[in-house]
Specification:
Elements (H helix, E strand, L loop, with lengths): L2 H28 L4 E2 L6 E2 L17 E2 L1 E3 L2 E4 L4 E5 L5 E9 L5 E6 L12 E6 L5 E3 L6 E5 L6 E8 L2 E2 L4 E5 L2 E5 L5 E8 L2 E8 L2 E9 L2 E6 L6 E6 L5 E7 L8
Parallel strand pairs: 3-6, 13-15
Antiparallel strand pairs: 1-2, 4-5, 5-12, 6-11, 7-10, 7-12, 8-9, 8-11, 14-21, 15-20, 16-19, 16-21, 17-18, 17-20
Amino acid sequence: MSTADARIRRFSTITWLAGSAVAVVLAFVLVPFVGVNPRTGDLVLTDPNRYEYEPWDDPDAQEARLEGDELSGTAASGFIELPPGDDVWVVGPLTSGTDDYLNVYQQVDAAVGLDDERPDYIGLVSESRKIAVVSAATGGRLWFAPRLTDWTASVSRETPTPIEGGSATGDGPALLSYDGDALSARFAFEGDGFFTVDAAFPGEVIDLVKGVDDVDTRASWPAQGRVILRVDTDEGAGRWTITLDEPASDTP
């Protein structure tokens, strides 16, 4: 090989390496994330976890579809409007896309800017889990975190049964409301299987009780006005009783 040929080959190699480096840098800038969706096997060019905790910041968020008692969304971030003062929404369980759970956030007042008031995380929906959503008087919006697949969930608008006389009892799932001075109660369950109770307010859902088989415990909730208590247990598994604690008297 002549000296000229060697120089030409060396120049070609350097040019190819430089061009490859530039191509890699441009690819990283233009397509900073490349992955494979483990559920579908499709090539993914955007990070699916980028908006997991802030789906409202996703410029590609899509409005979920509500048709009868079915709520459905895509794998992208999603949202749906909550009518002001509506009945309690019970969202879940998932009926499709059940390989993954769905994280849900609530924006209590859609008229308030997201920079001033960030939506609150209120829980997750899965193949076996529901959440109760209490709409505020101002309306609002539910936000759904992005997932790997599209999803469908059952949804129902329900009017809770008021707790009267200081106690409530039943067999199976129930949705109750209480608007009084008590901030705690005794929760008892005699039967087999799971027994859970959630306390729901606009923008907040609290796990009060989680137990299996016979349960006898006390739990409290914050002073935020009317509280919605969602009781979840299998139909026919046993009877439960909720007894409100009498508030302490101000008089000696």
